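By convention, the token line describes the chain's fold. To illustrate:
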Amino acid sequence: METTKQHVLITGATSGIGLELAKLFAKDLYNLVIVARSQEELDKTATVLNSSYGTHVTTIAKDLFLPESANELYEEIKDKNIRIDILVNNAGHGHYGLFVDSDLQKDLDIIQLNISSVVVLTKLYLKEMVSRAEGKILNVSSVASKSPGPWNSVYHATKSFVQSFTEAIRYEVKDKGVTITALLPGATDTDFFNKADMEASKGIQDKSKLSDPADVAKDGYEALMAGKDMVISGIGNKLHVAMAAVTSDEKTAEKMGKKQEPVTPSNRAL
């Protein structure tokens, strides 16, 4: 296969689903622009991708928790004369605990990363794509977008935004030559739960039930390339979303609350 010479921008690309997506694009010889907070981790990832697939990798260290970072990222890529043909908004974060007890700044940081940075990057690159009448955007949503999430309320709410936003703008540009796809993973075997201080959650104690990030990435990649509007990764997650659609929000919140509550001696076997 000849190189496409197209560039893919992937946020949160040094681990988990983002890394697996980077591998899939690299395998198909796309040039990559990968973004994360740690330059050291970016350099390691770039070395692996380049040595394994021979693709060109540009690394940019940016903390998308900061309000100015998404615009800075766009300008930096523009200064490098790189045209982004595919945008993958993958970076995301959660924070475990009751909302009444959570740190307000952490809540706002999650909103900044999961919503504001996605909106900024999507806005800036969608304008370019529409003007060229071609391009693709993959927004990593979540099955969390389909239900309230006690113990992880802000995260679930941000993913509801991402899902609704993605579906709406897809309709707006449906005749403009641009593909916009939402990927909805469920609980996946990544570092997300550790970063979210979620290791005590009852719902993730059985690690064998967590999805493989490589499988999730493959589902998202194939859906994007096929021009689909969305893909729910995994049969169990499809069932979860189907059940949530026919269950009241009150009942769904109750079920999710019990699933995500901290493990205690009294509920460990429940």
Notes: The chain has nine helices and seven strands. The mean pLDDT is 91. Strands lie at 7-11, 31-36, 57-61, 84-89, 135-140, 178-184, 230-232. The domain at 7-260 is CATH 3.40.50.720 (Rossmann fold).
